[in-house]
Automatic annotation (TrEMBL):
It comes from the Bacteria. It holds the Pfam family GMPPB_C. One of its GO terms (molecular function) is metal ion binding. Residues 184-315 form the Alpha-D-phosphohexomutase alpha/beta/alpha domain. This is Phosphoglucosamine mutase. It comes from Pseudobacteroides cellulosolvens ATCC 35603 = DSM 2933. Belongs to the phosphohexose mutase family. Its cofactor is Mg(2+). Residues 65-166 form the Mannose-1-phosphate guanyltransferase C-terminal domain. One of its GO terms (biological process) is carbohydrate metabolic process. The keyword Isomerase applies. Keywords: Isomerase, Magnesium, Metal-binding, Phosphoprotein.
Length: 616
């Protein structure tokens, strides 16, 4: 400009001016707002000294906010969140509980899950932090990034837009090029995501079309959900996608997953879905996909759906080819009747049980209590979470009950509590159902995952039964249980109900106790004591293969099984090392003759895995 002799002008002003050339200047400009150097807060309400909030923002009780601080329009700040001074939070942000934010700038439309820590950082637009993420001073996260569970972003790190950070990752260098574009929809336990963040109506409709496209035109499927409005929203959007590809839909209204599984068999359809809220987060949905037998779909079927979804090559039918939506409102009555038709009610009435029913779901209680009363049981019930153990024991004593039954909110998981307060769940419950199978059906075959305790083989030997071990996924277990038609093979149906249908399983356990006039405490004494250990260890994705290969090729006198992961069998126990499908983890399961042996076996292999990971 000087060479060209272009004119250069200056302007003298008393107004605020800041040349934002780096991050420190950008942060300082925000701090200057708090110091009153520039007035930009006319559209905000000062709810407390130094705390300005926009319209439509909800701050829940017990959220702790220290001024000076600005929170934009239409935000939700959940309970137990801590926002300290010098924070600027834009519009349409959701910040879940137990989150802590200090001296940070957060732009618009972000979703920060519970337990995250943000310290002196800048978060741009449409960023999704999963739970327990930590990000430190002078770090910057670009638009539309996804930072997965328990990731740590170290000070000064810059992450360019549309990047995905792995769970448990420690990011200590800038991420500029490349991105981890997520080509999977399903995790180890099906499909799940935050409502209107990971899972929107548009996503549901597109996924429904992809799902429907794996079937022939004119096929029939079932859709159902819990009573949650968000679950219903997903269900209806998903159903519209299915209808658009020429597949007929049966809408079962508000039900439980086991009822949907039963309906698939009863209606002879090709498959179905059930939508429910996550047990650990009311803002997260889980979607169960089921095959024509009512079992969880296989990984092969999941890939077909994912391929159709990402390629968007699903067919579209003409308007006249669109199938109808069939609403069925009373299927739960058929379900209850089918359970009762399959047990000896007279035997139950001759030795009636006193039972406490506990569930966090009023809908579950409304189904199971009258059903048990119809067959002669005396029932007390209350709504509670499973962790209220003392209250459950108190209710057993107060009602002189034989035992208590806890049923989860979706009617799938059953746990029992006996008169002494002993909890029967997980491996112990699986051992109980296996024992009932062996004693109730001669020469019966029990299907259990490879992680199940060896005591089940001991019970099989005692009662001339057989044990078939499978991979750990729900589909693998269900597939083996249902390798024949569910409605025609009573043995398969019996074990499936005991393990995947809490209502039917409870009635069958009651029937067994009544037919044999045996209290629950007495049958539990038949199960030998066993000692298991379950641990996990961080393992980077790229080293999982190395860990497994090294463990397999090490010289050892132990017997090796490779059904799922790698299992080593010893004289005094066994250990299974299993890479996690969704997280950078290896899971280590072990069993020993004593608790100390089980723990020592686990520690031995945890040490081996650490050594392999650290040997580069």
């Amino acid at each position: 400009m000087l060479k060209k002799k272009d004119p250069i002008y200056g302007f003298v002003t008393r107004d605020y001016w800041c040349d934002i050339g780096d991050l420190q200047a950008y942060l300082q400009a925000h701090y200057d707002i708090f110091q009153g150097k520039i007035n930009l807060l006319n559209d905000y309400t000062e709810i407390k000294k130094g705390i300005w909030v926009g319209s439509g923002t909800l701050i829940e009780p017990n959220a702790l906010i220290s001024g000076p601080c600005i929170i934009g329009n239409n935000c939700r700040i959940s309970t137990s969140t801590v926002i300290e001074d010098m924070c600027v939070i834009g519009d349409n942000n959701v910040i879940e509980g137990e989150t802590s934010i200090k001296r940070s700038i957060i732009w618009d439309n972000n979703y920060i899950e519970y337990g995250s820590q943000i310290r002196g950082a800048i978060i741009c637009n449409k960023v999704n932090f999963k739970h327990y993420v930590s990000i430190f001073e002078n770090a910057v996260i670009g638009d539309k990034c996804i930072v997965n569970e328990r990731a740590i972003i170290k000070p000064g790190i810059k992450i360019w837009p549309q990047k995905t950070i792995d769970p448990l990752a420690i990011v200590d260098r800038n991420i500029v090029w490349g991105s981890k574009h997520n080509k999977t929809i399903f995790g180890e336990n099906g499909l799940s995501g935050i409502i209107n963040v990971d899972i929107s109506p548009e996503f549901a409709a597109r996924l429904g079309a992809a799902y429907g496209s794996i079937f022939k035109k004119g096929s029939k499927v079932v859709v159902s959900s819990t009573t949650s409005n968000s679950a219903r929203m997903f269900k209806h959007a998903f159903a519209s996608g299915i209808l658009s590809v020429g597949v007929e839909v049966f809408n079962l209204s508000s039900l439980l997953t086991p009822i949907s599984r039963h309906a698939i068999n009863f209606l002879s359809v090709e498959g179905g879905i059930h939508v429910k809220l996550s047990n650990d987060n009311p803002n997260k949905l889980r979607v169960d996909f089921m095959d024509s037998k009512g079992a969880s779909i296989s990984r092969v079927t999941e890939r077909k759906i994912e391929n159709a979804f990402f390629r968007e090559d699903f067919r579209r039918c003409s308007g006249e080819e669109i199938s109808r939506l069939n609403n069925i409102t009373d299927f739960k009555n058929y379900y209850v009747r089918s359970i009762l038709n399959d047990v000896n009610i007279d035997a139950i009435r001759t030795f009636p049980q006193k039972i406490c029913i506990i569930s966090p779901s009023d809908f579950v209680i409304s189904l199971v209590v009258p059903m048990l009363q119809d067959i002669g049981c005396k029932v007390a019930s209350f709504s509670s979470a499973f962790n209220a153990h003392d209250k459950i024991v108190e209710e057993i004593e107060k009602n002189n009950a034989d035992f208590a039954a806890f049923i989860d909110s979706n009617g799938e998981t059953l746990s029992l509590i006996d008169k002494s307060g002993n909890i029967i769940n997980d491996d112990l419950f699986l051992s109980l159902t296996s024992l009932i199978m062996f004693k109730n059906i001669a020469n019966s075959k029990v299907v259990v995952p490879i992680t199940a305790p060896s005591v089940i083989e001991s019970l099989a030997k005692k009662y001339n039964g057989n044990v078939l071990r499978t991979k750990t996924s729900p589909h693998a277990v269900m597939e083996q249980m249902l390798n024949h038609n569910l409605l025609k093979n009573k043995e398969n149906a019996y074990q499936f109900s005991l393990n995947f249908d809490a209502l039917a399983g409870l009635v069958k356990i009651i029937e067994y106790l009544c037919k044999n006039k045996t209290p629950l405490t007495e049958i539990m004494e038949e199960i030998p004591a066993f000692y298991v250990s379950k641990k996990k260890i961080f393992c980077p994705w790229e080293l999982k293969g190395k860990v497994m290969r090294t463990l397999i090729t090490e010289k050892s006198d132990e017997k090796v099984e490779l059904l799922d992961g790698v299992k080593f069998i010893m004289e005094n126990g066994w250990v299974l090392v299993l890479p996690d499908a969704d997280m950078p983890l290896c899971r280590v399961y072990s069993e020993g003759d004593t608790p100390q042996i089980a723990e020592s076996i686990s520690e031995k292999y945890l040490t081996k895995i650490r050594t392999i990971i650290n040997t580069r």
